[in-house]
Amino acid sequence: MRKIVAVAVFAAMTMLGTVASVAAGAGGRPGIGPRAGIAQASAPKGGVERQEVSRKQYDILIGQCRYLKTSEARHRCRAQVREQYTVGAFNPNLDCRTYSGVSVCGVLELTAAQRSCVEESVGGGLTRRRAEVECYAFR
After folding, report:
1. Dihedral sign (CA 20, 23, 24, 29)
2. Rounded Cα gap, residues 125 and 119, in angstroms
3. What's the rounded mean pLDDT across residues 100-106?
């Protein structure tokens, strides 16, 4: 918890309390699912409909896989991103956010320890969205 609070304080000081938006003020809104209102592209072999996202959003989705703990999990994450997303137009409904220098998009699949970290951080005063990103990246 001390590390999370220290990172949060440092981030708040360096960012002057502002949250960096991933795509020029249109990083998405909480509560909107990753597939809400999206024109669908072709379905890949697995039958999952692909979402069109900008190159920047796609790079963030691929990049956030690096925070997973095992090589196998990182590989599986990247494969899932390649299967579910295609580069095209900016997707305003994809929930992207940046906190403490960490950018993520979509719903984060948290481990039990990360969920516990989120609850502890929220109890300590962080917003849930920020706690999710920081616990995902740093726990």
Report:
1. negative
2. 10
3. 96
Write out the two tokens for 57.
């959003």
* Cα separation, 57 vs 61, whole angstroms: 6
Cβ atoms of 28 and 93 within 8 Å: the answer is yes
Round the average pLDDT of the chain to a whole number and report it. 77
Which tokens go with 10?
Answer: 């440092």
Write down the pLDDT at residue 116: 97
Q: How much is the pTM? A: 0.66
Contact 77, 69 (CB under 8 A): no
Q: How far is CA 104 from CA 56, 67, 129, 137, in A?
A: 11, 10, 11, 9
